[in-house]
Fold each of these.
Amino acid sequence: MAEARGSGEGRLVRLGFGDPQRAAQLLQQLDALHPHGPIATEPLITTLSESADPDLALYSLLGMVEALDRNQYDVGSFVRTLELDDNFRRRLIFVLGASEAFGRHLSVHPRHWYDLADPTLTGSRPSIEDVAAKLASAVDAEKPVDALRVEYRRLLLRLAARDLAEGLLVDETAAVLADLAGGALETALRIARNNYFAAHPEAADCRLAIIAMGKCGGRELNYVSDVDVLFVAEPVEGEAEAPALKTASQLAAATMRICSDHTGEGTLWPVDAALRPEGKSGPLVRTLESHLAYYQRWAKTWEFQALLKARPVAGDAELGGEYLERIGKLVWSAADREGFVGDVQAMRRRVIDHIPAADVDRQLKLGPGGLRDVEFAVQLLQLVHGRSDEAVRSGTTLIALESLTTSGYVGRTDGAVLADAYRFLRSMEHRIQLYRLRRTHQVPEDEADLRRLGRSLGFTKNPVADLISAWKKHALEVRRLHEKLFYRPLLAAVARIPGGEVRLTPEAARQRLTALGYADPASALRHIEALSEGVSRRSSIQKALLPAMLGWFAESPDPDAGLLAFRTISDSLGSTPWYLRQLRDEGASAERLAHLLASGRYAVDLLQRAPEATAMLADERELVPRTPEGLRTEMSSAARRQDQPEAGVAAIRAVRRRELFRVAAADLSGLLDVEAVGNALTGISIGTLTTALEVARKAVAKGAPEPTRMAIVAMGRFGGHELGYGSDADVMFVHDPLPGADEKAATDFATQAATELRRLLALPGADPAVAIDADLRPEGRQGPLVRTLASYASYYARWSAVWEAQALLRADPLCGDGDLCTAFRALIDPLRYPAEGINERDVMEIRRIKARVDAERLPRGANRSTHTKLGRGGLADIEWTVQLLQLREAHRIPGLRTTRTLAALRAGVEAGLVDATEAETLGIAWEFASRIRNAIMLVRARPGDSIPTDPRDLAAVAQICGYPPGESSRFSDDYLRITRRAHNTVAHLFWDD
């Protein structure tokens, strides 16, 4: 006897209906379809309220009963079963409340409700053979393609009912989905074979096996997914290969169409054969030997990674088994192949880079902390360790993760947390796809969709908030663990503390480090052991830090150097209270340090000489370069506290060393562009030379009054405020005797002071030496080191050539007496900015000198295409072009009266002298070449002008210049392209070609 239901919209709201007025109307319509008693009984309404979306479940239920009534099926039998069978009612309503698509299916095939009332459904798991046999019944139907779709949906409905009503583990659901796909492919192939040979009875026969790949091959398929496959074929005995392959290709294509085409009963899913050798450009079907030949000779690492999941699912089982056996031998040796590490890094980047920015935060599959992170980590570990351990070779992610954990390749806790997160994320993905049976990996944004999704996963109290919280928690765990997953077991492998957990063997640890890019894994393990040994607080913090640090080192071209430097710095600072605490508590600080240590030798050398500079990495604001005024004040104060000139300049150089590290750290952290680096390094040199000159003058004077004023004129890149890490300081010295002073005595004093300055700055020390080059002075090395202001005036009036006027374009008096600096600037301005510009004879002379420089100055063996200074479209080409413009036009364009290359170029554009596009071409090339020269110094700790040919140095330079690992070739190609365009622009602007 049906129980009378309580009515009232208020009650329906409390039961979870979103639109109670409409729900009340639908309940009345439902009852009207059965005159012998109500359908909407109290148990039914209760079950509706427990479903993911009560409104949707009720609406779909009404549509289904209307279809039963319309087709004159036995509504009474359905109503009685709905009332009396609690299991059936729960299965049906839970399906209808979670899936709009199955609601539509049951309105078209309403008698499929009998499957949900099957008493054997609860707790039963169909075997692969059972699934295949049921789908194979479609072969003999009148319309086999439609029959296959109907049978597939019927079996899918049975699985969804168990999944939603019984709470199946996602492992089982995914496995049955893969079995369904395999059975459908087998049936589609049989239909294709029947059709083909009916139309072509004389065609050659063949053996054809379908190999599932991806999630189908791993028996971890989604509700809606492309099914990735490969086809392998052989002629049957007595047939020639070519006609047999033609038949196989026809059968393969027909099988794909049968599954993918849309008919009156819809479609199954797309079949994708793009993972085959040569991808879509290759033949659809190959023989086994052809597959093997390709994989042995041409296959990339990602193709072997894809083959981890290969599994024969349809067609000739013997051929499929042989394929798997022979291909497997190649798969498990992939980690030994040259370039394996670079390929793996590139694969990870492709996954990340191909996510649209707008989607990244709602991506279950590809976003940070998503499914692909887990799958990629597991597959990489399988490739590394599966070559020597068959136990970890499963194509199923969760089974493989469990095997890796059992064998000690993944920590027990990490493995369990990762498996839980993966199951939750896959369950979310399944529920999202079930709603409309559409392929998607996006978490919905609509509140109603999120509410239905949350309730379907068991979050009934606060479905939206609790769902989002759980999702974010699991994604965070994945993001936190998937990098450390590779490195944590390495610590256990070298630990001397006994523990119950299975540990990596030394050989397995070396294999893993090699696969992750460490060139000397034995040394790396010794460093790890030294850093983490013992039970002290220091070793505990290091154990917590090392997994992340090892991962950051591995992202660089030279992880071994990064790890060694980290050990050296830690040995120096490990006993200080702030060092490890800073790295532990300041995540950005540890990551900055790791990238800096692995970037090259320059910053590491600076840091090893003054490890306490690590403290500035804790706060990004500490990496802002100091002002020249602040530096001069600090350097001067440091020097005055010393009694001896050597000690005074050593104190100045210590400040300089710290500031060079600050600029290098900011540069490597991406906080400074190349102009800002040049400005900062110039400011450091100004402070160093200004305060060191004070010390030198004081040392020469020995307490007596000084007879002259002195200044240092910055030249070249120093004067242009464009210094690089490896630049010399090009200078000229000028003095001006005080009134009443003897000029010879004043000149002797100034010369001694300049010589003492150069000696003090060249002394061996803990910081890079300050190289002072005074060769640009009048008469070069043959001329006096120091001249008076009047001597400069006399020389320039009598002997100055156009090339010296060009050199003076970069002259900027920056150090020493301010009035003398101003006077010198006033002296040279008429020379470098002549009143009417330069004449054509001078233009010809500049071009003649430039041609000679191009022909003679390039070092022996240097490649003109890759020499950043003297090569085609390099710095010299661009700077000479800008300087010629200045000599011609600066007399009338004030903006051109600057020592800075890019500032002059911008002024030329504003004045209409240079086309904006051409200026942009030159500016990009100048910045790129300058950046490369800085990067070479950062990597090698010695200057260089040519793009490195050593692969590791090239990779490091490219990475500093902003190119991801593995893109050295693109970096080199970009340089050639950019400088080629600059060279063409120089030909137009400088040579008038």
Amino acid sequence: MINDTFLDKLSKHILNSFDNNLQDIIVVLPNKRAKVFLLDSLHKHTNKTIFAPQITSIEDLIQEISGIRVIDSIELLFEFYEVYSSLTKKDDLLNFTIFSNWAKTLLQDFNEIDRYLLEPNFVFSYLKDIEALKRWDLQPKETTSLIDNHLAFWKKIPDYYSSLYEYLKNKKIGYQGLIYRESVKNLKSYSNNLLNKKLVFAGFNALNQAEEKIILHLLTNNQASIYWDIDSYFINNPYHDAGLFIRRFKNQWKNYFTQPFEWISEDFQQEKNINIIGTPKTIGQAKIAGKIIEELTLKNEGNNKTAIVLGDENLLIPILYALPNSINTLNITMGYSGKNNPAQLLISKLFKLHSNAISRNVSNYTFYYKEVLEVLNHPLVEPYINVNEVIQTIHNNNFTFFSLETLFRLKEEKYNLQQNDYFDLLFSKWDNDVLKILTRISSILLLIKSFLNRESEEEKVTKAFVYAVFKVINKLINYCETYEGKINSIEALYDMYKQVIDLAEVSFEGEPLTGLQIMGVLESRVLDFENVVITSVNEGKFPSGKSQNSFIPYDVKRELGLPTYKEKDAIYSYHFYHLLHRAKNIYLLYNTDNEGIDAGEKSRFITQLEIEKQPKHNITHTIYNAVLPEKAYSIMNVPKSELMLERLHEIATVKGFSPSSLTSYIRNPIQFYFQRVLRINEMDEVEENIAVNTLGTIIHEALEGLYQPFLGKFLAIHHLDEMISRIDNVTLEQFKLVYKEGEIKKGKNLLAFEVAKRNIYNFLQLEKKAIEAGEAIKIIALEEKLEVVIQDERLPYPIKIAGNVDRIEIRDNIIRIIDYKTGKVEANTLKVNNFDGLTSEIKNEKIIQLLCYALMFKSNENYPVEAGIISFKNMKEGFMPFTLGKGRGVVSETMITEEVLEAFKEEIIKLILNILDKEIPLKETIK
């Protein structure tokens, strides 16, 4: 059983010391979160009805003392811009977007200077002198306008600070540092008005100068008491960072020269089971955390005593998915980041879509297909917008860039002028009126809300996401109305939106006092749990590491007493060890990958625990790796069912086996199965750049278009000249027919267009030279559909083979069957010695295709037949015929005789019997 928690100890003390006048004390805690737990603890330790004491956080107390309201960082930027505008000449005035880039960092420094009660003019003068010293070797005449402007900026900073400070103070609003400085000024007045009330500060660690001054003043006046939560091990070890701040207070505060220092516990050195678990990637940590919770639940360890603390808050959703179903009650004490909110992602996509459309062409408002499809396929759009035919049309017609009018025309054509408010709201033109844009976005979110089902649990979560973004948009509308003219472009609005969304979190509802607790590091302050699971215990996450978001250099911070990464690490160290302080079962999960996106070295805290191991600590270290299968991949093996045999019979007798389907089977039977048997084709995608097969189709179609007028005629020189003159028009026409709306006037597609024209030109020049050399060429067929039925007693039924041949001609009294190839083909790949095993190797695919064409070809002409390939990437070879016989001393034969066809038919029958054999499964071939 866990010892008394810090809050239990505090409750007992409050009840014992102030039992009869609880209403006269104010308990001050580091955060608001702990208030509920303290009230619960007070309830447990009293059996009578009492008025609870006032419980507040340190920030609320400081606001009360100062009488100034804190404002968020975005509102502060706008207020600062008002001050900056009043101090800057109109010609030198920066727009709000550029201003905010450096103003955020400057405000951060103003905040630190005020929280630590430094003399601002001294700090700014110091910084100005440092910048001037960097240019000490330059004479006035050697400086540039850039250097002069840079030094002028540092000279203006004191004016910015003092003007902003007075401006905000007069409006009774401010940033945290200003409120702290003002609270110190008002401290005496506040102290005098306390009367009989007494403050109890509890659970603090690091204090800034203002907090320290306030607490010391109240302690000295006997108007407050303070109770620390520190273990003797940390406070007595002068080198341990977990006790860095409290050790200093104990040694430096004069009160402790005469009064006891309370409270130092002895809990850390008690018996603890510390399980250090390493696993690759963050998702592995989520899975292991879920498993740990399941094991704790099975052991009847109360979930009320268990907490999962996330070192990286992005792990929240994976953790929730990994939790076992046995978890009935759960409390999430942290917001889910607005960055990953699906509604926010949709708004970001809309900003990207419309701002890019304007930047491409203001008058035409040109969209990019990917940006349109990202919006249409978004999970908050796709189920409700009902424009699948528009999406399909964009895919099928290769729309890449198209105007707003084109998009709406497509919608109207497909849906016959049906009203679609959602489509109109998403895609209608944006202008530079930011309030109109925000109102439009607000309307989109309200429309999404109306689509969501109130009863569905899943849609309740979606509604929470949508509502979080809706609040952000309303806040932006409020800013734009209040600070009119500051945000005056879509770019500035989007920049502001990204800043505001960082502050927007989706809050989860839960019962804070029961069930498993999931929280961030800061939410765990002053709370104690028996079972603690801490994730992402890696350098850069826990502790968070160095981050320099300040104009004040490190050495100056050290000299002035401002916090640096050293102090930040010490704060993390205190939080980490406080989680371990009273826990019995501790699980520290870290990422073992030291490369990649979310990689990181094991945290120094783990190493420190292992090196400084306490006698009663039971530390185990385990590494979990993903289970790797024995085989990287199992080859697919599909047996031939009755249904498959029926389908094969249909192919063989109705449509027929094409030469390419036969070679597809030889290449990979599973590819044949998917494409021919199941008829599963690759999904149509927009081709931004012309694919190789599309280019081949265009060249084939263009050649057919050029030769068509001369079908059945002997070609003459003037025919070729006429064809050459028509290359540009015919090729462009085919590009538009095949590539449809694709862009061909620039980029890679223009190059492809020129390549197609060049290939066709080179081919026609080859034909022209042949005619000039006296060859007689007569085209007898173009893109001819051929078929043949093979009948054989070995076959279960007659088998049809059918396909289209590119070109058949009579050249010098020889019939040539020609197949165009846009890829490179070598002549030796069309030669074989004999037909043994011809259909067992894919290297013979081109020979099989040519001989299939020859087998299908029936001619009334009594001429010998050749079949061959013209390769556009090997044009110098010209016509490359199928050749039987190769090697030295062998007389090669290019004519395809009846004997050749009979020998080839034998091989084809073997292949078809293999395809139709019920006992031979379709087995994947991996090359």
